[in-house]
């Protein structure tokens, strides 16, 4: 039997945020076994903890959608780091397929532990941006609901199509619509779309990835990090260091709070950091497949 834990990530309130399954002692599991377990949990991501390849690091981790392994993801990184920290202020280094991910854990004044990681890659353009008319059809929104900035396709490990929308009402009504959705994903060479719109304090977002087995994700840390490149490219990220509150999952009834901090120097994007909380929900054992 394998030991597992369930956390709600990017929240301090149980049964909100993004659920995560963490499986311990996964050194001897095959990739096929991990994928089977991820399908069984059927959460947006399941993380498996293994011994680090470098003893100076904390752990090697592998992260799975219900349908496939992915090189990096934000909410598993936050949840795993807080789990391994055990309430201590510390720094943890995770070996992920996308690279080394350092995570700093600090106890806040209210007693909640906050984890902050530095993105393992600088985002870069992934593919040409599909026509806005196709984007609108794929989301069931009017073309005028896209903007005012241009959409873009970026990757920093995983890849996303970023779609700014004009207001919260448009964000709330958007949904993947076939067959245009599949055409859009193929043209952008991605399986996920990240929609966002400005609020009084930051941005509100939604992320759809039905092709990967995730109809909608309540919190997407990796997409939040890569968002910095989209904001810079569209003139929405100034020079210097900027911290932006992001809210996701509201339309799903699982509100999530993500803190994005990005540094721009001479017009170039520097370190990108993502911070958030997590709360334990369940623990138990599961049989080996």
TrEMBL record:
Family note: Belongs to the PhzF family.
Active site: 45
Family matches, as NCBIfam families: PhzF_family
GO molecular function, one term: isomerase activity
Organism expressing this protein natively: Roseicyclus marinus
InterPro entries the record matches: Phenazine_PhzF-like
Superkingdom of origin: Bacteria
Name of the protein described by the UniProt record: Phenazine biosynthesis protein PhzF
GO CC annotation: cytoplasm
One family name in Pfam for this protein: PhzC-PhzF
């Amino acid at each position: 039997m394998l030991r597992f834990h369930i956390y709600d990530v990017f929240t301090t309130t149980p049964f909100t945020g993004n659920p995560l399954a963490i499986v311990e002692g996964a050194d001897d599991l095959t990739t096929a076994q991990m994928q089977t377990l991820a399908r069984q949990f059927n959460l947006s991501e399941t993380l498996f903890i293994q011994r680090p390849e470098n003893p100076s690091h904390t752990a090697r981790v592998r992260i799975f959608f219900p349908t496939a392994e992915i090189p990096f993801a934000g909410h598993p990184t936050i949840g795993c780091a807080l789990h391994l920290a055990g309430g201590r202020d510390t720094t943890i280094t995770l070996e992920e397929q996308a690279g080394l991910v350092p995570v700093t854990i600090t106890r806040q004044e209210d007693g909640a532990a906050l984890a902050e990681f530095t993105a393992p890659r600088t985002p870069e353009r992934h593919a040409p941006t599909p026509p806005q008319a196709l984007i609108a059809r794929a989301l069931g929104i009017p073309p005028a609901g896209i903007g005012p900035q241009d959409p873009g396709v970026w990757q920093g490990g995983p890849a996303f199509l970023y779609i700014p929308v004009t207001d919260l009402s448009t964000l709330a009504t958007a949904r993947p619509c076939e067959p245009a959705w599949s055409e859009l994903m193929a043209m952008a060479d991605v399986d996920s779309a990240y929609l966002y719109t400005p609020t009084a304090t930051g941005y509100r977002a939604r992320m759809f990835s039905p092709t990967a087995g995730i109809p909608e994700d309540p919190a997407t840390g990796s997409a939040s990090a890569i968002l910095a490149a989209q904001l810079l490219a569209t003139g929405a990220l100034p020079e210097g260091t900027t911290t932006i509150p992001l809210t996701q999952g509201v339309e799903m009834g699982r509100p999530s709070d993500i803190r994005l901090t990005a540094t721009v120097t001479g017009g170039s994007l520097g370190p990108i950091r993502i911070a958030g909380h997590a709360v334990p929900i369940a623990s138990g054992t599961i049989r080996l497949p």
